[in-house]
Amino acid sequence: MWRTFKYQYLAILWAILVLILCDIPPSSFKGAPVFEGIDKLVHTGFFFVLTVLLLYGKIRQQKSYSYRILTIFKILLITTLLGGGIELLQLKVFTYRSADWWDFFADMTGVGMGIFSYIFLHRARYDGKFI
Length: 131
Fold this sequence. Notes:
Number of strands: 0
Radius of gyration: 16 Å
């Protein structure tokens, strides 16, 4: 178990940061650039980075760029639970934030982008060899 934390500490820290940033009051972001859809873009970026960090930790742990479907499934499960948990917290606990299905969709879009980039771009370049 500690071995997993050794390689996934960046992903864990990022997940904690995402959880905090998604649950602080919107008034804390005064002066930040605002345009239509910025919230969805931020959610997508947060979960893209989380997925990449989870995959990076797994690469470092197994010392190989190869992947198994089980690894992809675990990452999907972890990120789905985190994204859904954030929206439930916004609905029930942090009522000054609004829970939104589109935020959850944006989260899963970021996850899909991260998995896609790993499988089709990164893996093809290194052909399964660890550098």
